[in-house]
Amino acid sequence: MIKSIQYLRGLAALAVVLHHASGAILVHYAVEQKDYYSWGAGGVDLFFIISGFIMMYITFGKKVEVGDFLYKRVVRIYPIFYVYATIALLIFLISPESINRSASAPTKILPSYLLIPYTEFVNLVQVAWTLVYEVHFYLLFAISLLLINKYRYIFTGFVLSAFSISSLIQYKTFYLGYLSNPIILEFLFGMILYFLIYRREARDMWFLIGFASIALITLSINNSIPERLFIYGLPSFILMGLLLTLDNKGFFDKKETKLSNLFLRIGDSSYSLYLSHSFVLGVGVIVLNKINLINNNTVQLMIILLSIGALIWGWISYSFIEKPMISFFMRRGVAKWFLKRKSGEADLAN
Fold first, then answer.
1. 259: domain range?
2. Looking at the domain assignment, is residue 350 inside a domain?
3. CB burial of residue 41 (10 Å; 0-12, 13-18, 19+)
4. CA-to-CA distance for 314 and 280, rounded, in angstroms?
5. Spatial separation of the C-alpha atoms in residues 38 and 35, rounded to whole Å
6. Cβ count near 150 (within 10 Å)
7. pTM
8. Is residue 122 helix, strand or coil?
């Protein structure tokens, strides 16, 4: 386990929770207060950069079976996601207006479960729009694993760069238009960061930097680069690079504090927290409003209380739902049944 990555996962998840807790109160209940947590939207960008880095970390210089790689990614993403997607579906069937009530597009069931945007839609679990990009990045990475180590990362970087530039094309299909969002460059940023921290001598790094530069320059010339790449992506890249550098020098080895341990725990439960927090916030604001606790004098305290509630449930979800499900699907017998071949002990940390 890389401690700094867990800290960053914890920070990213907490940022998103605070951002959504603030929005849940300020937007839906029209409380006249400044939004102090709008920066929390950048947690998504940090997650994307982390994903790019981790894919490099677990595959560089190693012989990785594509089947094993995809199986682990599926087990990490889908089981717990389906738990919350199904909860959202039940709510949606009973009270459609309770799901994604502020969304501008229709909520659709099949693409929500598949995480494939073949038509314009909003996911049952609204935050799962990011999982669509994660899943397709993993698929691209899986394809690259079929190549020899010498070319796999150059291939991945080229595709990410080229596809982001292709966003300048007015795609007729929603699917391609959706996936070509330049936010996918943040996966490439994470890959570059791996080389900067661990493999500066590798020629692949310069290819990836070149691809990213070409994409950014091309998009900038055409005024098509999303502001969030600079507002959130660049600061996330710098912060992550700083923490990884400190970690690589052993800074965190003897720096355990209550705060660092808290962020480790949040990092462990970050995926469950990310998926579940909107449910906790939704119930929380309804209850708080019913008992008349949401007003201009209490709003900041309520945001913190809602976020704490989400953190607590996120840990419960991780400990008693997500982790046992992962353990079940990663057991040698179960994994063997799915992969149709013998495999060693699965690495739950990947």
1. 3-339
2. no
3. middle
4. 9
5. 6
6. 9
7. 0.92
8. strand
